[in-house]
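Memo to structure team: turn this sequence into C-alpha cells by end of day. - J.P.
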Amino acid sequence: MSPTTPAVGESRAARMVREAFESGRPITYIHSTEEQRIAKVLAELSRGKFAGSAVFTWTLTNGMRSLDAISAPADSPRAALDFIIHHSGPSIFHLKDFHEPLQESAEIRRRFRDVYDACLDKRKFVIITSPVRFVPEGIERTVLFIDLRPPDALELLAFVREEAAHFPASPAGDEDGLYQVARALQGLTLDEARYALRRALANGGPLGAESLPAVLEEKRLLVNRSGVIEFITSDTRLGEIGGLELLKQWLRERRRLFQMRDSISAEIVPKGLLMMGIPGCGKSLAVKAIASEFQLPLYRVDMIEIFSGRHGQPEGAFVQACRTLEDMAPAVLWFDEIEMGINSAATGGEQGRIFAFFLTWMQEKTRGLFVAATANRIDLLPAEMIRKGRFDEVFFVDLPTDSERLEIFRIHLNRRGVDAAKFNLEPLLEFTKGWAGAEVEQCVIAAVTKARLEDREVTEQDLIPIAAKMVPLSQTMKEQINHIRAWAFERAVRASPQAR
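Reply from structure team:
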C-alpha cells in the first residue's frame, strides 16, 4: 500500500504542549534530550495559539535570554525564578536542566512553589526540559510531567521538507516520496533523523523513494546501537519459502486487513501470530517474509540482551523496548525464541513481571505493530500466551512433506544460480525423509561447494551422496520432536496441509 501524504496539521508534540497550556497548568516538566525540538514548538506556539507571549530561555551557563537575543540579569537559578515572578505580561519560560537546582537546594524548591502561585492564571508558563526524570517530593503535585515521545510522521514530514530545502543541489521529490522518507525515520529523534537525511542527500538525487535505502541504512546503525532492538534488512518473499501454504494464505488475507487498519475496527486489525515448531523448518525465514509481504520494516527484540543486565533492569529494558517500537510503527516486531524470556516457570520476579506486562501490552499496543513470535521449546510457553486473543493465530511448523522438500531443493538451487529445472530430484526423497528445511539447504551448499572446488557445474549426482550420509535432526532428537508434535496437535493450526 502506497502511503498517503497527511494533511497539514498539528504535530503530536505541539498538541501536547498546547493542551498543557490550555489546561492552565503553569509548570510543565518535559523529560527529553531534544531541547531544540521543544524550543521550536514553544516558538511556534508564541506565534500561533499563544500569540503575543514572550519566550525566554534559561541555562546555567547563559542565564535568561529571550528569542530576540536580549539578555536578562538572571544568571543564577534563584535569579531566574525571581525574574519569572516579577515579569509581567503573557510569557513562556524554558528552563533547561533545572532539575539540578531543584534537587540540590531547599531554597530553590521553596522559590519554585512561589513561581507556581505567581504564574497561575497569569498566562505565564514555565517549561522545564531535562534528560533526567526528577521531580522533587513536595512539588510533584504542582508540576505536569510529560515523557516526550519521538516525533510523529507529521513532524518528521515538516522536518524532511526543511532539510531538503537546505540542499538545493539535491531537490526534493514528490510529496508521497517525502512522506515515505518521513515514515522510514519514525522512532528517531530529530537530530538522528538529520544524520539519516544528510547521508541520503550526500548520495545526490532527489530526496524521496529513491533515497530510502540510504535512510534505512543509517536508521539501522542508530537503532542497533541500543543492543536490545535490531533493525533487520531482508527482501525475502513468501514465494521464496518452500511449503507452509496455509500460513502463506493466512498472511495474504491479513495483509489486506492490516493495510486498512486506520479505517476498520481495532478488534479486527491483525495483532500478530505465534509460530512454534521444529527447529530449522522456516520460522525465522517466514518472519522476514512477513515484513516484505506487509511492506514494513522488521525489528527484532533480543531477549538474551534484555536479561544480560547490560541495559539496566531487564523489566525496564523490556518495557522501554516495547515503547520504543510503538514509536516506530508501522512495523513488524519479531520476538525470536520468545519462550527463553517468557516461559511457564516465570511465576514471580522479573520474568513474571515481564510476562504480565507483555500480556497487557499485546492487548493494548498500537494497531500499527504486527508481532511475529517464534518458539522452539513450546512446552515452556504459558497457556495464557497461546490462548485466543493474545495472538490472532498460533501456527505449528512441522517437518516439510515430500512435495515441500522438493520445492525447498529447487528454491535453494535456483538461489545459487543452478537451474533446478534440469535436475531430477525425485530420487532424493528416499534419502531425505524427516529432513528439515535447514538440512536441505546445507545439502545444497555442500554440493555447490564440492562442484566449485572441482571447477565444474553442480549435478544431481552431487546431492545424493551428501544426502545419504547426513543424519537429520528428526533422528538424533526423535523423542523431543515427537513430544513437540504431540503437544502442538490440539493447540495450534498446521502451517502446511497434511501429507496424504
